[in-house]
Design brief:
The complex is a heterodimer of chains A (427) and B (155). Chain A has 427 residues and is mainly beta. Chain A has four helices and 29 strands. In chain A, the strands form eight sheets. A five-stranded mixed beta sheet of chain A has the order 10-11-12-13-17, with no helix packed on it. Chain B has a single domain (23-154), classed as Cytochrome Bc1 Complex, Chain D, domain 2. In chain B, α2 packs across α5 (121-132), α4 (87-96) packs across α6 and α5 crosses α6. Chain B has helices at residues 2-16, 42-63, 81-84, 87-96, 121-132, 144-154, and strands spanning 102-104, 107-109. With 155 residues, chain B is mostly helical. A two-stranded antiparallel sheet of chain B has the order 1-2. In chain B, 48% of the residues lie in helices and 4% in strands. Classes of the chains: A mainly beta (427), B mainly alpha (155). Chains A and B meet through α3 of A and α1 and α2 of B.
Chain lengths: 427, 155
């Protein structure tokens, strides 16, 4: 009896203690995991696994108050968006969920949480604590977006002028008469581009918009998953998933090794009306040239016919950039400020060459433009070099978000782990 | 940085191999795991060897060297009824492609499979025999006549 009572007392004390800790977050230090969550990081950085959501965690967003919202690609237990609250040591608990649709997009701006399914975009009002005012009342902003059976995700971002940008991925590899089929030619004036293969601009607060109320802001983008608004030069930056299967479909023109390394995954700085050239072209990073695609008469050696937007920066082929984040925090050393983090989901289209990616890269920027060589920032999401090479990665980085203290959060859509990377050394 | 270097090296190799054609892919590891039955059956053994060559030339990009595919895009070929079940249905997928999404072990695979009708009946019989006896699979060989019968229904 006595021991039961003391246990009860202890339990109550512990509860009260954790409630106190909750209240005084500023006094407690975020503690990296002893193994830095299994990640390889630059000196001075640490990492922890914030939570295991067990869902396909695509993009995530964090309110100024620190509430974490995670978009799941597939509904789990009836919920497509998870709400997480952090404890003082940095670990977080899934405290709820809402939204009965899967999807990718998740973004917080000016008192609203924005979310996308593969067809639609919604928003939810946030209160002064960063909590959803009414999870049952998602406002439908955009509906009826085109979706096929590949490149389904609708990534979203807002600018500072109440505009919402939505990627609509092309539902094909290279707009062939027969998709991904050996020797199949490209369709003239690719019909996919009328409603996909680009970025559409909508109003961030107007309900029930369809294509007719939006603007095709940029075209010729095969599929964009990672995108962000660059606050330094007030411009939309996107990461394109470059085309697949140059060798499989055109074996006389491209070897396996060429196919594994072509084309580059490209970062584009977009302005209204930009055309990045898909499906007619691809970018060759060694020639540093936009090339004519083989579906449209190219042979691996012929530069593109026509004037297309050149990439702002180029990265190794097929690594699948799924997250882009301009870092504006002060926690990390000065070199990271206003630069871009890129989450590379990892390749599949390099087979039979070893797979690559499964890491977060850093691209330095100067005056709003990429400046200097990119570098691997956080590596070993896969678990080992062998797992990277085989493509059987334990974790696959997908979304990026910045916490109110300047921590970098990374979501994994393979096992649903949420990571938090912090700077622990003195600056 | 390591990846950058690999990338540059890969490109250099790609440049050097510019005139090489498709046939020079390394054999996937699974080829070594041909069923024990093959040793006693020279015709089966020959079919498995030819099938491995077709696999690495046509199938490996999407279905991967270990046959595991890529969830949730390209389906696995390991111990699924699509591979181990009805041979006519399997041959039909190779000949006509697969436009509909399929579900395997709770995962939806959506990326369409392109038709591979350019392969001969022999090549399809070989590669399906190989797939049905690799990656931990064990099932009967696919005969040329079985592929031919399915192809006839498509004309």
């Amino acid at each position: 009896m006595r021991s039961t009572y003391s246990r009860l007392l202890l339990g109550t004390a512990a509860l009260a203690g954790s409630a106190l800790l909750y209240a005084s977050q500023t006094n407690v230090r975020v503690a990296p995991d002893p193994d830095n969550a299994g990640l390889k990081l630059p000196a001075g950085f640490g990492a922890l696994k914030v939570a295991e959501t067990g869902g396909k965690a695509r993009h995530l967003a964090i309110t100024p108050q620190g509430v974490i919202y995670v978009k799941l690609n597939k509904v789990k237990d009836g919920k497509g968006i998870l709400t997480l609250h952090s404890q003082p040591n940095g670990k977080a608990t899934v405290t709820g969920g809402f939204g009965d649709y899967g999807g990718t997009g998740m973004y917080v701006k000016s008192g609203y949480l924005y979310a996308s399914s593969d067809h639609d975009v919604y928003r939810y009002k946030l209160d002064e604590r960063g909590e959803i005012v009414d999870p049952t009342k998602g406002e439908l902003l955009v509906r009826g977006l085109k979706v096929g059976s590949q490149h389904e995700s609708k990534s979203i971002v807002l600018d500072n002028d109440n505009n919402l940008y939505v990627n609509v991925g092309a539902y094909a590899n290279a707009c062939q008469e027969q998709d991904r089929t050996r020797g199949s030619k490209g369709l003239p004036n690719c019909p996919i581009l009328d409603s996909a293969g680009g970025i559409w601009q909508f109003k961030s607060s107007q309900l029930n918009q369809r294509y007719a109320q939006g603007t095709r802001y940029a075209t010729g983008l095969r599929n964009v998953v990672g995108l962000d608004w660059n606050p330094q030069d007030n411009q939309l930056f996107v990461m394109q998933h470059g085309r697949d299967q140059l060798h499989d479909n055109w074996p006389a023109l491209y070897t396996d090794a060429q196919s594994a390394n072509l084309p580059a995954e490209c970062m584009y700085a977009l302005s209204k009306g930009a055309n990045a050239g898909w499906p007619y072209t691809y970018y060759d990073p060694t020639k540093k040239e936009v090339m004519q695609g083989p579906e449209y008469g190219g042979d691996g050696k012929t530069p593109a016919k026509g004037d297309y937007l050149k990439p702002a920066a180029a990265y190794p082929a097929h690594m699948a950039p799924n997250g882009l984040l301009f870092y504006t925090g002060t926690m990390f050393p000065a070199k990271y400020r206003n630069g871009a983090f890129i989450a590379f989901h990892g390749s599949w289209n390099r087979a039979p060459e070893p797979q690559a990616g499964y890491m977060v890269a850093f691209q330095p920027f100067k005056d709003g433009k990429p400046s200097g060589q990119w570098e691997v920032f956080a590596d070993n999401f896969s678990g080992s070099a062998a797992k990277t090479a085989s493509g059987r990665a334990d974790h696959r980085p997908c979304g990026l978000a910045q916490g109110p203290d300047g921590s970098l959060y990374v979501s994994d859509d393979s096992k649903g782990t949420i990571y938090r990377i912090v700077y622990t050394a003195k600056k | 940085m390591i990846i950058s270097k690999k990338f540059i090296l890969g490109l250099a190799l790609a440049g050097a191999g510019l005139t090489l054609q498709a046939q020079h892919r390394p054999a996937p590891k699974a080829a070594a795991k041909a069923s024990a039955k093959a040793a006693a059956d020279p015709a089966l053994k020959a079919s498995l060897t030819r099938g491995a060559a077709v696999y690495k030339n046509v199938c490996i990009t999407c279905h991967q060297a270990d046959g595991g595919g890529l969830p949730p895009i390209n389906p696995p070929l390991i111990k699924t009824q699509y591979v181990l079940g009805d041979k006519a249905r399997l041959a039909h997928i190779v000949l006509a492609g697969l436009a509909e999404p399929i579900e395997i072990d709770g995962e939806d695979y959506k990326q369409p499979m392109p038709a591979q009708a350019h392969l001969s009946d022999q090549q399809i019989a070989d590669v399906l025999t190989y797939v049905r006896n690799s990656f931990g699979n064990k099932a009967s060989a696919v005969q040329v006549a079985e592929v031919k019968a399915v192809r006839a229904t498509l004309k």
